[in-house]
């Protein structure tokens, strides 16, 4: 399965629906390819400008580091690291970035969400990642 622009747009809509239904608040959401390059982005009404870049960096970070930003955050705390040690100013350890993997576990893209509490952002990315790995529907 490939991550197409059509599928990425559907995932954006599903993420926005979940944010509205579960949390009653708007989000910014980015879907990127396996390298972290943005495929598509959307920002719900009422989102601050800062959430745009944050969602994009969360998606980028997940792809570049090969793990969710939640996992990266835990590693940085556990190993007493600074994010700057990775020599990439586009990285962030804020939870809310995740990998999109196909059924065989191959990374096909990434997702980043900003606008809610970090754990809530992360839960939306987990939901979207689950759709991609389980449904495999274009």
From TrEMBL:
SUPFAM superfamilies: GlcG-like (SSF143744)
Superkingdom to which the source organism belongs: Bacteria
PANTHER family: PROTEIN GLCG, SLR1406 PROTEIN
Name of the molecule in the record: Heme-binding protein
Species of origin: Paenibacillus gyeongsangnamensis
Lineage, opening ranks: Bacteria, Bacillati, Bacillota, Bacilli, Bacillales
């Amino acid at each position: 399965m490939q991550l197409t622009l059509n599928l990425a747009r559907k995932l954006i809509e599903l993420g926005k629906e979940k944010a509205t239904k579960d949390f009653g608040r708007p989000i910014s959401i980015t879907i990127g390819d396996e390298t972290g390059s943005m495929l598509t982005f959307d920002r719900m009404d009422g989102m601050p400008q800062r959430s745009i870049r944050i969602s994009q960096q969360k998606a980028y970070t997940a792809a570049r580091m090969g793990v969710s930003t939640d996992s990266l955050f835990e590693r940085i705390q556990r190993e007493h690291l600074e994010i700057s040690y990775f020599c990439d100013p586009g990285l962030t350890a804020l939870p809310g970035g995740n990998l999109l993997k196909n059924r065989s576990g191959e990374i096909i893209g990434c997702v980043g969400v900003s606008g809610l509490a970090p754990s809530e952002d992360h839960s939306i990315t987990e939901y979207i990642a689950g759709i991609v790995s389980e449904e495999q529907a274009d």
